[in-house]
Amino acid sequence: MPTPTLVAAFPSLPFPNMDWNLIIDLCIGIGLSAAAGFRLLVPFLVLSMAALFGHFPVAPDLQWVDSFPALLTLGVAVLVEVIAYFVPWLDTLLDLVAFPASIIAGTLLTAAFSSGLDPFLRWSLAILAGGGAAGAMRGLSGFSRQLTTIFTGGLANFLITSLEILIAVVLSVLAIALPGAAIGFLLGLLGLLGRLWLRVRTGLLGQPVAESPAPAAAAPPPPSPPV
């Protein structure tokens, strides 16, 4: 596993009895899983490049990425995936397939980097944390694309696609190089998207919410006629 060298670089980590190797492995897996939610095959491609050129020892369940045929295949697959998402009508159809596929990929990635756990705990964490992170990112991405499709007829979807690719690459690289930073980046991204969603829901995006007019006061009763 890749983490002993990272832990050895920081001998004065707090909580010395804690298994920091496992925690860092989980951060790597969850970070890569979240990246799979934005672009399904990008984390596998980055992981393959890191294994071949960066001497990054991949998890045993992912040894298949540590080969040049796998790198070439993943590179072509990522290129096809990226091009397909730039087609306005095709990207919406791909989202229907990408949602369950990203959850499966996220689950497998997190499970691969948590092989030291008890099998039940390992797969529970993989499904909840890995699959959940990938599914949440895929859902947010698909929702953003649906909004741009509604308001621009799909003409602005290329902006969402470009942003997805960028985030997937950044998250994948951070997960391998700085796993803790990847989790921080992911939490910050979730917080930002959550705030934007609240602003959209409350009508505060660009202008304040129009207040409903106060009800008119009832007219006073007419004076009684003199007796």
TrEMBL record:
InterPro entries: DUF4126. The chain crosses the membrane at residues 22-47, 67-86, 93-114, 120-140, 147-170, 176-198. Pfam families: DUF4126. It comes from the Bacteria. Residues 26-197 form the DUF4126 domain. This is DUF4126 domain-containing protein. Keywords: Membrane, Transmembrane, Transmembrane helix.
